[in-house]
Amino acid sequence: MEANNLSPIGENTVNNSYSLNSTQRKLLLAAAAVSSGCGLAVELLLGTLASYLVGNQALAFGIAIGAFLAAMGAGSYLSQFIAPNDEGRSLQRKLLLAFIGVELAIAPLTALLPLGLFALFVVNGEIWLGLFLVTILLGILAGLEVPILTRVLGTEEEVREALAGVLALDYVGALFGSLAFPVILLPMCGMFPTACILGALPALMVFFIGRSFPHLRRWGYLGLILGILLLTLAPATIPISNNLENNLYSAPIIKRVQSSYQRIVLTRKGQDVRLFLNGDLQLSTLDEYRYHEGLVHPAMSATALKKKVLVLGAGDGMAVREVLKWKEVEKVVLIELDPEVVKLASRHPQLKAVNGNSLQDSRVQVINADAFLSAPKLKESFDVIIADFPDPDQDIIAKLYSAGFYRRLLGRLTDTGVFVTQASSSFFAPKVIGCIAATLAEVGLKVNPYTVEVPSFGPWGFVLASRQQLNPEKLQLPVQTRFLTEPILHHLFELPKDIELGNVEINRLSHPVIVNYQLRARWLNY
């Protein structure tokens, strides 16, 4: 009988409200935690997906989180219009039904909307508008949950207790959701299976609630069916998303990896194997030697001592391959954030063939860590430091080009040591190379910017820096190369007239101006 599950508090209770038993209360509080955890995980998923598709991580997460929170506020406001004139058992019945309805709506939308957003991008749709609308819809539904649960759990005398309980579990759930998504769900399941799993959880909570409330039992069975369907759909999203992803690349995809940090894709067309990170081209095996010879050998030739070399980024092993050509090298320390990149470069036959299996060389030590934190803490100093980080189009990457990082890194550079960093496209983003040069000069180094022509990228910038003034005309090249010669090496430092190095600000941790230089570049006109 329902009276055994919703029992009167007492004859004099205000509004003739009905209390919940201990099991029902705990179940609804658990539902609050699950709802919050799934909601926050979905926000992170949408932000990750948008930043993967179109870059601009700050804007992607700004829309995903900001619009979601604003929409939750709208949902909370709208909740007051649910059963506004009911009281007692009728009120609790209608609120429970409303909560069940919200969960059953959130479940399929959470599972399917991210995949729809991906499809929208593939067909060149308005991705930012799509992200905004998806976020608003899910946010409004999520905003209904806490007010409804609070009203279900509370009577006039228990509002504070009910609100405290719901919010406490809501925040605990948010913590678990924010950790589970990047640490467990994304790397283990992938983006779109994760969306299905997150959608299935609210549906399964409906099933458990239905078992505890007899008048909701049939809705519980619907939740069970929906949850099972979404879990069954999870593995099916992989071939669906793979087929969609295939349309983003001009060559067949031969390897896909979703790590905790990024989407790694390897394509092959004939002899051309290309590595993409979050959709951005990192290298083509047809011409990568030009880039990596240009990155490594000017620095290696600029110092008499080159026994110890520190390489930051460059987990594909190509830069390490060039470093190992110098017989004087006794030790190479490679710091790469993403272990999946190193694993791919060490195991995939096409990459191993190109990088010469350099990461397996006995002189090479691989450290999987954040170079920003770990490199300055190394115990030893290095004769050459090579930085091959992604382009600074996000604040989180811009710190790797900041005066603060360079100043801390100087402690790991010997007095006669040389530092070199990639500096983005010298033609399309000339202010980036200028900013990097100015920032390195700010920390007391003598700088020598230069460019290399790489067919896959066009003119590409680098900055060589040391405590002593270098003379490029005295650089020698005693190692075997495919592109560089000594005359070419000397002329790399003759910058074209359309590359202006002045009129830039210093890139600082507190003011990452380099992001604007990277994003507001000439390629916006192409």
Structural summary, described in words:
- The chain has 526 residues and is α/β, with parallel strands linked by helices.
- The protein is built from 17 helices and 13 strands.
- It is 52% helix and 16% strand.
- β12 and β13 form a beta hairpin.
- α1 (22-54) packs parallel to α3 (88-122), α1 runs antiparallel to α6 (191-212) and α10 packs across α11.
- The longest helix is centred in the N-terminal third of the chain and has 35 residues, at 88-122.
- The N and C termini lie far apart (71 Å).
- Mean pLDDT is 90; it is low at 1-17.
Main sheet properties: 7 strands, mixed
* Alpha-beta classification: alpha/beta
Strand fraction equals 15-25%
Q: Quickly count the helices.
A: 17
The share of residues in helices is 40-55%
- How many strands in all? 13
How big is the Rg? 28 Å
Q: Which regions have little confidence, pLDDT < 50, spanning 5+ residues?
A: 1-17
Comma- or semicolon-separated keywords:
526 residues; elongated; alpha/beta; 17 helices; disordered N terminus; single chain
Outline the fold blueprint.
Blueprint (H helix, E strand, L loop, with lengths): L5 E3 L9 E3 L1 H33 L2 H22 L9 H35 L4 H27 L5 H31 L1 H22 L4 H30 L6 E6 L4 E7 L2 E6 L2 E5 L3 H14 L6 E6 L4 H6 L7 E6 L2 H9 L1 H7 L8 E5 L2 H4 L7 E7 L6 H4 L4 H7 L3 E13 L4 H13 L3 E9 L3 E9 L19 H6 L22 H6 L7
Parallel strand pairs: 7-8, 7-10, 8-9, 10-11
Antiparallel strand pairs: 1-2, 3-4, 4-5, 5-6, 11-13, 12-13
Helix pairs in contact: 1-2, 1-3, 1-4, 1-5, 1-6, 2-4, 3-4, 3-6, 3-7, 4-5, 5-6, 6-7, 10-11
